[in-house]
Amino acid sequence: MVFALLVVATVQQESFVKSALPDGIESILRTQTLPNQAYGPKPAHEFNLLTTVSSKIGDAQSDRFRVFGSVPEKLLTTAGAARFLARLFDYNYTVLRLDHSRLYGSQKVDVYLSISGVAGGEQLVAPDPTTLDTFGRPTLSNVCYVYDVSTLDDPLEACRELAHEYGHATLPPVRVPEGREEWANGHLGERIYLSHLRTQLSAGFLETSDLFGASKDSLDRYFLKKVWPAVLGVAKNGPNFVALGQKGDAAFSAYLALACYTHELMPAGVFRRTLVLDQDQSVPSFAKAILEASSEPKNVEIRVPHAGSVWIPLGSSRLSGAKVLAKKNGWAKVQPTG
User: Fold this and answer.
1) How confident is the model over 195-233, as pLDDT tens digits?
2) Is residue 257 within 8 Å of 240, Cβ to Cβ?
3) 3-class state of residue 253 by DSSP
4) Residue 333: its pLDDT value, please?
5) What would the DSSP string read from start to end of 267-334?
6) pTM of the prediction?
């Protein structure tokens, strides 16, 4: 049992977020004012606004986010961030079948929009002094910080920053020694989440108000710069097997390319399985997980992103609708025949 010590005023504003996915998760956003005091594991700044995201899981409502902020709010408001995060949680839960960890904060992710600090973000697991266990000790919280939010005026950057930290908080981690970050799930998070939101926005299932006002054009530019070239690189040339076995940014980029390829071209169920089959949280293990995940279903259809030959993870599977031109490390270069 845990005891929450957070004292808040009555709810000032309530809104609903209806899922844009079949059988998706609906959420209620509740915004309240707070007493002026420090909240969270880093008490350098006081917060006086809180928006809670309560999602419908089965027949029950369950809190999945607490978003703390300050008045006056600018682009990155608590309500706007909560709406955006509710969309990401819906995708995690409905498509990837990932929920927040039961180890932290009763499955809540706490997000702090701080006006202090150096611009950027951070994810950490830390004691939460506002919530105590039965022995009076702070419980551990899954925490995301975005700093210097008063200067953040680019809607796409707001989306990218939150998607990155949420990736750290919820996606299974892959460690890349000496990479640009030790854990690559933040970079993967921003790529798969923004790609998903771009598709939903293009199809008319989302509004720009779900994305801080970010336009389809800005999401297109991000996709064509950060995602699609990596996907095409794997499709045309196969995985960079040398880099996948190394350290540093070469391995980091090779991992992201392989993960984005799987997310964009293979069925959602296969991508979902790659995330959990990478049991030792390493880049080489993830590469093996793709072969295993693609061999599990009876049939797997792969989107072909360009004309001509394409590399696919064949593993132990049989191939139809294409001719094998070359093989390497469980992958095959094939020429579609239909």
Assistant:
1) 999 999 999 999 999 999 999 999 999 999 999 999 999
2) yes
3) helix
4) 93
5) -HHHHHHHHHH-TT-BHHHHHHHHHHHHHSSS-------SSS-EEEE-TT----SEEEEEEETTEEEE
6) 0.93
Let me know: does 113 contact 67? Beta carbons within 8 Å.
yes
Residues in the chain, how many? 338
Dist. CA 86–CA 19, nearest whole Å: 9
CB 265 within 8 A of CB 234: no
Structure tokens at 323: 């001719």
Burial 213-247 (b: 16+ CB within 10 A, else e): bbeeebbeebbeebbbebbbbbbeebbbeebbebe
User: Smallest Cα–Cα separation from 283: which of 247, 331, 231?
Assistant: 247
With helix as H, strand as E and coil as C, how does 175-186 read? Answer: ECCCCCCCECHH
pLDDT in tens, 242-276: 999 999 999 999 999 999 999 999 999 999 999 99
Q: Which two tokens stand for residue 246?
A: 């190394």
Amino acid at 184: A
Joined together, the tokens standing for residue 119 give 């611009």
pLDDT at residue 269, rounded to an integer: 93
Q: DSSP states of 255-281 as a string? A: HHHHHHHHHHHS-HHHHHHHHHH-TT-
3-state secondary structure (DSSP) of residue 231: helix
Backbone angles phi, psi at 143, to 5 degrees: -125, 140
Per residue in 296-334, pLDDT (tens digit) is 888 888 888 887 899 999 887 888 878 899 999 999 999
The token duo for 337 is 């025949």
Burial of 279 (0-12, 13-18, 19+ CB in 10 A): exposed
Helix (H), strand (E) at residue 11: strand 11-17
